[in-house]
Amino acid sequence: MTAFPADRTVIVTGAVSERGIGRATADYLAERGWNIGVIDLDDAACKAVAKELAEKHGVKAHGAGANVADEASVRAAIDEIEAELPQLVALANIAGVSSPVPYLELDSTEWDRVININMNGVHYATRRAAESMAKNRLGRIVNISSVSAQRGGGTFSKTPYSVAKAGVIGLTRATARELGEYDITVNAISPGPIDTDIMGGTLTEERKDELVKDLVVNRVGTTRDIAAAISFLIGEDAGYISGQTLNVDGGLYMH
């Protein structure tokens, strides 16, 4: 078992949106001493968030803009972050888009958009990060799937989203199997209803009450719930967990 370096970096994709899981995760991990690489669409916004995290938590942070659906763009962003920050130990693949389009109204443009961002984007970031992790023989990768993948939708987003998020689970298992020999773990988190804009805007109290009826806890999830689960899975003590999907969903889906 390789010990973690004292100075270690995690890259978080989709980390700019103020109400998103990525931003909450970057903040939560910085608070716990991780140096943070910020990736999102807008380079200037990434750099601004990185500056804010560094000042707030006293860690090192660097932002680089990238479209996760474009492999060259993702590789360049990770190259830039690695040049600026200590050893890359972890990657949190959080960038994603929702898609509420009904199946019979779905066209190929929307299908490709959702698959490219939500599944291919996870592969591109993982593929590049894994190169560095394999050289160091140490890595933790966490991907965000969705309960939508396991239940075939039934959430705000519909078919292409469910398909992409199911693909993320398959990718998680296959990469866990192939990268294990390099002491890299790969796991997925499958959130249930979380109060973020990906649910179609801020959830009203009425909508929250409706969602809670399907849960075994008395509230919908928060971005902090997911950030805490990511923090655990990328931690030094989680090295014996790999290829798993952790449902953080208030008991919505039990399997």
Automatic annotation (TrEMBL):
Keyword Oxidoreductase: yes
Enzyme class: oxidoreductase
EC number: 1.1.1.-
Keywords: Oxidoreductase
Protein family according to the UniProt entry: Belongs to the short-chain dehydrogenases/reductases (SDR) family.
Origin superkingdom: Bacteria
Gene3D superfamilies assigned: NAD(P)-binding Rossmann-like Domain
Native source organism of the sequence: Arthrobacter sedimenti
Protein name: SDR family NAD(P)-dependent oxidoreductase
A molecular function GO annotation: oxidoreductase activity
Coiled-coil parts of chain: none
Domain Ketoreductase: 8-192
Presence of the UniProt keyword RNA-binding in the record: no
